[in-house]
Amino acid sequence: MALHVIVLFALGIIHQVQGLYLSHRDGEGCRVKSLRKPWQDLTDLQRASYINSTLCLMDSPGQQTIPGAKTLWDELHYAHIAQATYIHFVGSFLPWHRYFLVVHETLLRRECGYNGPMPYWNEVADVDDLNNALVLDVKTGFGGNGEGPNHCVADGPFVNLRFQFKEDLTIAESPSCLVRNISDCSFTGASRTNLDACLAARTYDEVWHCLEAKPHIAGHWGIGGTMSNTRLSPGDPLFFLHHAWLDRLWWLWQSQDLPTRLKEIGGANIPVDDSDSPAGNGASSASGNETSSPSCSAPMGGAGGASRGHGGGGTSKPNKGLIDYFNDGGNTTTLDHTLWSARILPNVTIADVMDLHGAFVCAEYV
Ligand SMILES: *[C@@H]1O[C@H](CO)[C@@H](O)[C@H](O)[C@H]1NC(C)=O
Ligand SMILES: *[C@@H]1O[C@H](CO)[C@@H](O)[C@H](O)[C@H]1NC(C)=O
Ligand SMILES: *[C@@H]1O[C@H](CO)[C@@H](O)[C@H](O)[C@H]1NC(C)=O
Ligand SMILES: *[C@@H]1O[C@H](CO)[C@@H](O)[C@H](O)[C@H]1NC(C)=O
Ligand SMILES: *[C@@H]1O[C@H](CO)[C@@H](O)[C@H](O)[C@H]1NC(C)=O
Ligand SMILES: [Cu+2]
């Protein structure tokens, strides 16, 4: 009897300790939320452990038969590249990236044993001094700016990172490096003023346009290089900290009107032509008012030389077959919309990711 109690007590402690960071997605509901914290607030040990686990993803064999994918990191990369046209500048932009954060977190914890909090990058805190951002620290962070003619990242933990996939999913003959090309000017789009403007949006349609065009673009262009490439961006581990930040902003917006905003969705399934949409192009951060200086007016290119057309990318206009399998029953994004991760995790629907505290995501921003 006494032993029984002690065992239960011990299990309770283990449960609690793990529960600090691990969500319980088993069964219905969300009992213990996975914590998401600013990178700035992680301990040195937690930062080292997160970087280690990220390196582990880059070093662990892939689980599937995706041709060319050698590692788990390649498989995550593939999942984004393969559908880049259908997950940007469409209604499912925010939900798909929320799903992808869970896909990434699941691999990090399950395959690489990470048990700390999931970090996000509080970008507004670094908006005035991007070069000294803690995330770019060589020792405790993700390494710094690119160097040399190709702007390959030359310090920090990811100097040896190489990408198998090119933008069109063909296999690179000589895998390319992680590229960064920091632009303070582009990063000014992450300003508090812009965030507040987005958070004041009244409809889902307004908020996703605003978040995608301003804070989202600011992080991608502020880091530049791989991050500024619509298809290849998740190759840079900073992608996940950036998107967790963006996801937090969406959740803050949702939290202003719960439970109503757990059901608010909309937007087109077909990327709106760049020229028609204020958010339709990465360059909108340069042509619009949200960036302050004309010196960031030409951040085109980036790794792989992609033009940053966020819409069709020219190569693959969504076809009817694809639109149909989103399962919306039309061109407008609904809660029934399918989210796919190239079989890393099973498909879910947008309804499954709307609630940060729901069974599938089960997380908390702190
Ligand atoms: C990171 O990995 C290295 C080598 O695999 C190991 O020696 C070190 O203890 C790890 N650090 C943390 C914080 O997990
Ligand atoms: C830029 O700001 C001015 C004044 O605030 C406004 O009238 C104009 O419509 C804005 N232009 C864009 C492209 O947002
Ligand atoms: C870096 O960005 C600048 C503009 O900010 C651009 O002129 C340059 O070509 C970029 N370099 C690389 C390697 O992408
Ligand atoms: C859906 O989009 C296609 C392609 O843009 C268009 O031809 C079709 O009319 C749209 N259908 C509806 C119901 O809006
Ligand atoms: C998952 O979604 C993808 C893309 O929408 C679709 O092609 C696939 O058939 C779905 N898989 C299952 C098991 O429903
Ligand atoms: Cu993306």
Automatic annotation (TrEMBL):
Gly residues compositional bias, start-end: 301-314
Pfam families reported for this sequence: Tyrosinase (PF00264)
Positions of region (Disordered): 269-314
MF annotations from Gene Ontology: metal ion binding; oxidoreductase activity
Sequence ranges of Low complexity compositional bias: 277-300
Methyltransferase found in the keyword field: no
Signal peptide: 1-19
InterPro entries per UniProt: Di-copper_centre_dom_sf, Tyrosinase/Hemocyanin, Tyrosinase_Cu-bd
Keywords: Copper, Metal-binding, Signal
Tyrosinase copper-binding domain span: 88-105, 236-247
Keyword rRNA-binding tagged: no
Entry superkingdom: Eukaryota
UniProt cross-references to PANTHER family, sorted A to Z: TYROSINASE FAMILY MEMBER, TYROSINASE-LIKE PROTEIN TYR-1-RELATED
Stated name of the protein: Tyrosinase copper-binding domain-containing protein
Organism: Podospora didyma
